[in-house]
């Protein structure tokens, strides 16, 4: 089984305002039975990765969860170097996570990678309080064409 995950295309949102942030495109391609959709593409920001890591840690028991790249103490206009370093760190984090069978069994991870649900919507869905199941949420996103955005670079 092969799972390729790429974190790319960092974009500054709300640029110039006090609440600006960078989000990243996460492109996933797999033939693993663990995933509902075989290809997906979502955008996530750093604090959503922080939430994901915390949830994985809570549910993984003694299994170590990979580290995230450090948080900048203050966000100075988005230096390209900082954003690129963080992008690489986020990619390494996800690459390690999807290779771990225990972490791969967490529904939150699948919704994080394969739906554009917000963190509260992911929580509601996982706890059965949302309007759809985890699988339905992923399939609905995949079928909406948003999840099938083609990657700019071709696969190796």
From TrEMBL:
A Gene Ontology molecular function term of the record: phosphatidylinositol phosphate binding
Sequence ranges assigned to domain PX in this UniProt record: 2-119
Signal peptide: none
Membrane topology qualifier: Peripheral membrane protein
Gene Ontology process terms (BP): intracellular protein transport; vesicle organization
One of the record's GO cellular component terms: endosome
Keywords linked to the UniProt accession: Cytoplasm, Endosome, Lipid-binding, Membrane, Protein transport, Transport
Pfam families assigned: PX (PF00787)
Compartments, record wording: Cytoplasm; Endomembrane system; Endosome
Main location: cytoplasm
Similarity annotation: Belongs to the sorting nexin family.
Protein name: SNX11 protein
Gene: Snx11
């Amino acid at each position: 089984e092969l799972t390729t995950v790429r974190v790319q295309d960092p974009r500054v949102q709300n640029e110039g305002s006090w609440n600006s942030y960078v989000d990243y495109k996460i492109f996933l391609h797999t033939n693993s039975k663990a995933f509902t959709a075989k290809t997906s593409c979502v955008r996530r920001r750093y604090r959503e990765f922080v939430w994901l890591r915390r949830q994985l840690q809570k549910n993984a028991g003694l299994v170590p969860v990979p580290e995230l790249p450090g948080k900048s103490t203050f966000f100075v206009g988005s230096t390209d170097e900082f954003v690129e370093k963080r992008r690489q760190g986020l990619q390494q984090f996800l690459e390690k996570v999807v290779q771990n069978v225990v972490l791969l069994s967490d529904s939150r991870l699948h919704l994080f990678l394969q739906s554009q649900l917000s963190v509260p919507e992911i929580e509601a869905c996982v706890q059965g309080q949302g309007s759809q199941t985890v699988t339905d949420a992923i399939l609905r996103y995949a079928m909406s064409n948003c999840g099938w955005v083609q990657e700019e670079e071709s696969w190796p």
